[in-house]
Amino acid sequence: MKSTLTKEEENLAIVTMVIPSNEATSAYNTAANRISQNVNIDGFRKGKAPRNVIERHVGVDRIRHEALEILLPKYLGQAVYDNKLDIITQPAVIGYKFEEGEDLEVTFEVETRPEVKLGAYKDLNVKAEIPAPDEGAFDKALEGFLTQNSSLELVLDRQSNDTDIVVIDFEGTCNDEPIQGGSAKGYALDLAHSNFIPGFAEQLVGHNINDEFTINVTFPEEYHDEKLKGQPATFSIKMKEIKHRVMPELTDDLVKKASRFSTVDELKEDIGKYIDAQKESIRKASAENVIFRTVYDSTEVNIPDRMINREVNSLVNEYRQRVSYQGGKWEDFIKSQGGETELRNRLIEEAKTRIKNSLIIDKISKEEKISVEQSDFSDKINQVSAAYGVTPQDMLKQFGQNPDFLQSLSQQIVNDKVRAFLLSNNNVEYVEVKSEN
């Protein structure tokens, strides 16, 4: 088989390959025989009709297509290899000349990987911002443990205060219309940790059980529902219960009952280890991100529109799946975004960033000969299965035969290894930044 690169521009290669006539004829005969096994022709048993009868019955073009399906898996890959093409899409046949007794000519096109011009990516000096130590982190974690094991007691002799948990019925209206999802009965709300509209929880303070009253709030400008953004709303409230939290005493008995530890000291030691691990994780993520951003900014690559459009399609599909998972309607979501064209336009920059990130990772992995080993797969499977709460065996059983899953897993491994390489081959100065909260 011979192949010739006939055109290559804008990351699109067109290749013509010539397959010897004897191999083309053999594939044609095999295809005709396969087809004959599955069609009924009067006067012949299945598989016994001569080739000329099969050709008249199903048509020469169908046999040719079947023959191409036999030949192409073998020869397309060879043509890509012979022409040293770094492809990012599967080859697509755009034409062929298939005549009996003659060499078979097949022309296909394929997209090639854009040229990536890396800037410096080793021996960089960067600064990574990390949060200043939270001196109260240990106490907060210990308080969280006690809160999880606390109890709630009814309050009968006073009004609600800002640390109570209240049980309410409420109905909301905006512009004299009921708010979709804006009503509930018997809803328990922790007034100290409310994620309701700003001002909602605060107005539930200072009321007695069975009080009925109204409160007025304004939806935030960044609220997800276009109809409610920045709009005033009124909620009718009935205070049904007031409860206050009773915190337990921190004792060995409590620790034994509520955790895997036996003593308070063991619990405190574990909390300390957890906080240290969180700090290290934040340091690592911050350093990796600032290094990669530096490499990203110094890298030059021209991304073809075809790649961008495919990535935008992928992002749109992700949005579609997310909306469906949340129980929403795609048509309503698209309307809230100003139409699908507007959504796609907004996704272009994100698509470009994703593509460039991927191209940089791929380029560095090739430059540094970073590969995926079997042990890497095992470690990643263990990590992912633990995150989903299943055994590695169940994870492999469920996804092991899915090429997309395996490809995604492989890409994650390469990403991790490249980021680890960058972290160990660059110099990072950590700068502590105090939280504004």
What sort of overall outline do the alpha carbons produce when their principal axes are compared? elongated
Radius of gyration: 32 Å
Helical fraction equals 40-55%
| Total number of distinct structural domains | 4
The succession of helices and strands, N to C, reads EEHHHEEEEHEEEEEHHEHHHHHHE
Compute the separation of the termini in Å: 69 Å
Q: How would you characterize the overall build of this protein?
A:
With 437 residues, the chain is an alpha+beta fold. The chain folds into four domains: 112 residues, Alpha-Beta Plaits (2-Layer Sandwich); 127 residues, no CATH class; 96 residues, Chitinase A, domain 3, CATH 3.10.50.40; 54 residues, no CATH class. The protein has twelve helices and 13 strands.
Helix and strand layout, with pairings?
Layout (H helix, E strand, L loop, with lengths): L1 E8 L2 E8 L1 H16 L14 H8 L1 H23 L9 E6 L6 E8 L4 E2 L7 E7 L5 H12 L2 E4 L10 E10 L2 E14 L21 E7 L13 E15 L5 H7 L5 H35 L1 E2 L3 H21 L4 H7 L3 H28 L6 H15 L3 H8 L3 H22 L2 E7 L4
Parallel strand pairs: 6-13
Antiparallel strand pairs: 1-2, 2-4, 3-4, 5-12, 7-11, 8-9, 8-11, 10-11
Question: Which labels suit this protein?
Answer:
13 strands; Chitinase A, domain 3; 22% strand; alpha+beta; four-stranded antiparallel β-sheet; 12 helices; Alpha-Beta Plaits; 437 residues; 46% helix; five-stranded antiparallel β-sheet
